[in-house]
Amino acid sequence: MITYKDLQILFEDNHLLVVVKPTDVPVQADDSGDADMLTMLKQYLVEKYNKPGDAYLGLVHRLDRPTGGVMMFAKTSKCAERLCEAIKNGDVDKKYLAVLDGVPRYKADKLCCHLKKFSDTNTVRIVPALTEGAKYAELDYKMLSEKDGRSLVSVKLITGRGHQIRVQMAGMGTPIAGDKRYGNGAKQRLPLCLWATELRLSHPISGKTMVFRVYPPEIAPWTSFNIDAFLKLSVPNDD
């Protein structure tokens, strides 16, 4: 079973913790009972700093369980409040890489629609704007490369809805490779090929601009593309 010792920590100070979330690990505890990011990282803080009892760790944004990549957590309530406000105001940039089954009609586009979550099936669908419970969703994508009937795209989220990238990509007729819920993943036996590759923000306390970039796993079909040509690792951020 995975533990906090298996997690890659990109940055840590008194306020902020930035880590790489592996694929197929839940962000917080769920009915599966599997190890989750929040619990593991709290255990890390308890053991590293010899804290009695529990440790505070604020969950300020989420990634779907099958999605991996860069995530940040707040180590203080003040930091959590400021990060949530920054995300709400659009002051935190989140970029993703995805491998799609098929090739988008347009090399680059803005996708806008309304999404509604159906809790009984834990699925999200594109619905008419006036549908009760519908939420506006927007993202920008750009096709980076194409090979063997698949395409590599970069995605910048404008809104952060559950399953948003997966549903909007599938809505174009090009679902994300390995997506068992909205694509052909059940037949492909692939992990979901969606990776949170970049996080750009102002440090909630110091105000310093911080950029974190991480590569997707070195497995197929990611390895079919020259990821290095589109993603360069940033220099480490100073404390």
Task: Describe this entry's structure for a reader.
Strands 1, 2, 3, 4, 5, 6, 7, 8, 9, 10 and 11 form an eleven-stranded mixed sheet that branches. The chain has helices at residues 37-48, 77-88, 164-171, 185-188; strands at residues 8-12, 16-21, 58-59, 68-74, 93-101, 108-118, 123-127, 135-147, 150-157, 194-202, 209-213. A hairpin with a 4-residue loop joins strand 6 and strand 7 (123-127). Helices cover 15% and strands 33% of the residues. The protein is an alpha+beta fold. It has four helices and eleven strands.
Distance between the termini: 32 Å
Low-confidence stretches: 233-239
Give the overall average pLDDT. Answer: 94
Gross morphology is: globular
What structural category characterises the helix and strand content?
alpha+beta
How many beta-strand runs?
11
What is the helical fraction, as a range of percent? 10-25%
User: What portion of the residues fall into strands of 2 or more residues?
Assistant: 25-35%
Please state the CA-atom Rg, rounded to the nearest Å: 18 Å
Number of helices: 4
The main sheet comes to: 11 strands, mixed
Order of helices and strands: EEHEEHEEEEEHHEE
Features:
239 residues, alpha+beta, 11-stranded mixed β-sheet, 4 helices, globular, disordered C terminus
Short description:
By secondary structure, this protein is of the alpha+beta class. It contains 4 helices and 11 strands, in the order ββαββαβββββααββ.
List the helices and strands and how they pair.
Blueprint: E1 8-12, E2 16-21, H1 37-48, E3 58-59, E4 68-74, H2 77-88, E5 93-101, E6 108-118, E7 123-127, E8 135-147, E9 150-157, H3 164-171, H4 185-188, E10 194-202, E11 209-213
Parallel strand pairs: 4-10
Antiparallel strand pairs: 1-2, 2-4, 3-4, 5-9, 5-10, 6-7, 6-8, 8-9, 10-11
